[in-house]
Structures are given as structure tokens and as C-alpha cells.
Amino acid sequence: MENKKESILCNFRGICMKPTCDGCNIKAWLEENRKSLIKLVSEKDNILNETVVNKSQLLDQFIVECVKCDKRKMDSKIMTLDDIFGIHSTFYYYGREHLLINLLPYIKHGVDNNELITVSLSKDIYDQLMELLDFHGISRSGVKFFPVKNMVIANNKNGLEGVRQLLSALLEEVESNKYKGARVIGQPSFAIGETSKEDFLELEKVLTEAIIGLNASGLCLYDAFDYIHNREFIDEDIINHSLETHSHLLYSNSLFKIN
């Protein structure tokens, strides 16, 4: 399977799937496989089925090639998702199924590691996530919604120091409830819809530095489907900044340092 993936990837390496690219057949391939993934999830009735996960990971490779478009390279791999404090990472998803297949294991690692999980997601995705946590027996007692507006307001008022103060307050709750730390998960398209593109970009500039040295990690979930097809929220500017403002990439259920 790995050889097949690598062979396909090599054939298209360096080609970008942006809407402005003419004659790019990867876009059609992605859409075909997104629909295939949806069908597979329905057939298996289990979003974490091994066959489903393998199909999802094949999507990972092409999405990453499109988004980074040779701008940055994946470097060293973090062997576990259990020790990620101080890391601000990014993930690019192509369709809701692809998002949830990758998000559930990431959250489970945090839950099993006794971390508080905060999520800032659109209501429909948040509701489905909660249902899937129950379905797969993943405790959601330590999973809570965290309003992204609060972080944007903190940054607008006091910049980096304001964001660190907000995270420190969150970690006080973590300590009082005897959690080891916090995983802060956000969906940029939701954040932009709740605030503005400009406010979101200003926040992203400081998040990596704000998290350093804290018992917390950050994960931003970028909608690659929107980027490739619509650009309603995730446009070229947002994608370029995402590559500049995150230190790691979530890819095939592992974190890789990006340079």
C-alpha cells in the first residue's frame, strides 16, 4: 500500500490543486475519493474502521501536496501524540468525514493522557463530534467548547500577553480539575465567520509563541475543500499564513515538524 501511495504521489509531485490551475486532474481524483470515503464510512458504519482510515490517509498525501505546494518541507516525526505540549500544529481536511476520522484519534490521545480538550467548531461539526465520541466510547467529560471570540478579543486588546493570560486562565482550570494539560483545537473557517479574516490572521501570528512553555498544545483545522473549490473562508492568503505560523503538521495520525 505504501509503495502504491508513493508511486501516485511522485507522479503528481509539484502540481498544485488550486482553482486557478488549468488541467489539474488531482482535483477530480480528490473529489472522487472523497465520495468514495463517504460511501465507505456508510458501509462500515464505523468512522475508525481500518479500511476507512487507510482511505482517509491516502487523501492526506494529496491535500498536503496541494497546500504546501513545495513551499515547506515535512521534517522530523514526533513518534507519539501523547507528548505534544508547546506545539502549535495544523491539519488540512477535505470533507467532514476526513476531518472527523483524523480528529477522533487526536482527541482520544488527549483524553487517555488526562488532558482537557477544548474545541472551537461550527455547531454541526461539534454536535457530530460529540455523538461520535459517545459511539466510540471516548469520554467527553473533559471535552468542552471554547469560544474563539474570547481569544481574538484578548489578542486585539493586549496582543501576545493577552493570549497568554487567557491560556494561563484555562490552565488554572486544568490544574484545579487535575488534568495534565490542555489541547486547544480550532477551526479557522468557524473563527473567521465569528470574527473576521484580519482578526484571525493577527491571532495566528502570536499563537505559536503563546503556547511555548505551557502545558498546552494548539491544533488548527483548515478546510482544504473550501480552499480548493470555493474560497469562501479559506483563501490563498489564509493558506500561506497557515504554513508560516505553525510549527507542525498533523498527517496520517502523526505530527511532523515543518520547515
Average pLDDT score: 86
CATH topology: Rossmann fold
Taking all Cα atoms into account, the compactness measure Rg is 18 Å
**Shape field:** globular
Number of E-state strands: 8
Question: What is the N-to-C order of secondary-structure elements (H for helix, E for strand)?
Answer: HHHEEHEHEHEHHEHHEE
CATH class: Alpha Beta
Number of separate structural domains: 1
Order of strands, widest sheet:
1-8-7-2-6-5-3-4
Relative strand content: 15-25%
Ends: how far apart?
27 Å
SS class: alpha/beta
Low-confidence stretches: 1-20
Biggest sheet descriptor: 8 strands, mixed
Looking at the overall shape, the CATH architecture is 3-Layer(aba) Sandwich
Helix content: 55-70%
Number of helices: 10
Pfam families: MEDS (PF14417), SpoOE-like (PF09388)
GO molecular function: protein dimerization activity
Protein name: Spo0E family sporulation regulatory protein-aspartic acid phosphatase
Organism: Metabacillus litoralis
Structural write-up:
The chain is α/β, with parallel strands linked by helices. The protein has a single domain, classed as 3-Layer(aba) Sandwich (Rossmann fold). Helix content is 57%, strand content 17%. The chain contains 10 helices and 8 strands. An 8-stranded mixed beta sheet has the order 1-8-7-2-6-5-3-4, with helices on both faces. Helix 3 (50-68) crosses helix 4, helix 6 packs parallel to helix 8 and helix 8 (197-211) runs parallel beside helix 10. The longest helix has 29 residues, at 148-176. It is globular, with a radius of gyration of 18 Å. Mean pLDDT is 86; it is low at 1-20.
